[in-house]
Specification:
globular, Molybdopterin biosynthesis moea protein, domain 2
Length: 63
């Protein structure tokens, strides 16, 4: 199984792209976003979650 390279993702991800980037399901990504203690760096833009790829990687590496 090959994992996508960072360059194949935009700098700002939607939930589906963020889930694919981390290799988890979209449902799991939503659960992480909504968890009080997860601290995933997420913003709401026009009602949709947007996530910085760089900040998401930094969050992941801090676990």
């Amino acid at each position: 199984m090959s994992t996508p390279s960072s360059s194949s993702f935009p700098d700002i991800l939607n939930v589906e792209q963020a889930a694919e980037y981390l290799g988890i399901s979209k449902l799991s990504m939503y659960k992480l976003i909504r968890a009080r203690d997860s601290a995933i760096p997420v913003k709401r833009v026009a009602g949709a979650f947007k996530i910085s790829r760089r900040q998401l990687l930094e969050w992941f590496e801090s676990l």
